[in-house]
Amino acid sequence: MRWVIGQVLDLKLVLDMAVENVKVLIMGAGYGTRLQKDLLNDKTGKYSHLIGLPKALLPLGSQDALITHWVHLLAKNGIPSSSVHVITNDACHSSFIKWAKRNNVPENNIASDGTTSNETRLGAVPDILEGVKRFGLSGDNVLVIGGDTLFLHDFDLSQFLATFKQNEACLVTAYKVSDETVHKVGIMEINKDGRITGFVEKPQPTETDSRFACPCFYLFHQKSLSLLDQFLEECRSRQAGLEEFDATGKFLAYLYPRFAVQTFGISGRIDVGGLASYIEAAQYFQKQ
Description:
Elements: H1 11-19, E1 22-28, H2 33-41, H3 66-76, E2 84-88, H4 93-102, E3 110-112, H5 124-134, E4 141-146, E5 149-151, H6 157-165, E6 170-176, E7 186-190, E8 196-201, E9 212-213, E10 217-220, H7 226-237, H8 248-255, E11 261-265, E12 269-271, H9 275-286
Helix pairs in contact: 1-6
Domain Nucleotidyl transferase: 24-286
Pfam family, one: NTP_transferase
Organism: Mortierella isabellina
């Protein structure tokens, strides 16, 4: 499943142009409370070495960390490790610095949002804005990747980047979910050209005909980034609670009526939430 406007005659040329102004922001400021609870309750002791480790840094397959998969894939597609940035928290900052040293990511590309616990977290959307400002990315197109986001092996990053270049729009990934999963994820409504026309956060299956979910893998057009500030300012003005800006999908729902958001179809994703899903992900990537 792909939504691609126009035909790419020279993919390498388009790709070179596409990555010229793309910077990457990995979201690593979450506290992974469900995973940590599972690890503490695990009676086997097999995974005790993972206690305290953020999900983004969980070892996976042949790589030292989940996000190292992305660093390598990005590099293969023309985006060097020097263009990769991570926004994390105070509790995990030192762990990400060690990871950066191992993977040729500049230490200055790792920043803490200043929080120390899940109770004091800023929320996902404020962390995106924090990363954009701290790393000076407001003049770039910014690829935001969730620290626990993984795709199946058939994901084509080169085609994703080439598709972005063809449209004056943001670009997000989309995959189909079952009726049983609809209420667990944000659901996008998409027109025949693959453009988002609606977004419903964790709806009941009867509330929408769409079954397209959107993982945290957003390529924001540089011209759309000012809407992050605008969205959060509106949240502050109405004294919105954390639930209004803690999920990245909340911003996507605000974004699409104000700036075009195109979709790129993928076959599926791997969601690392608790220990069971991490074990499944590890088994999947072990086959790579």
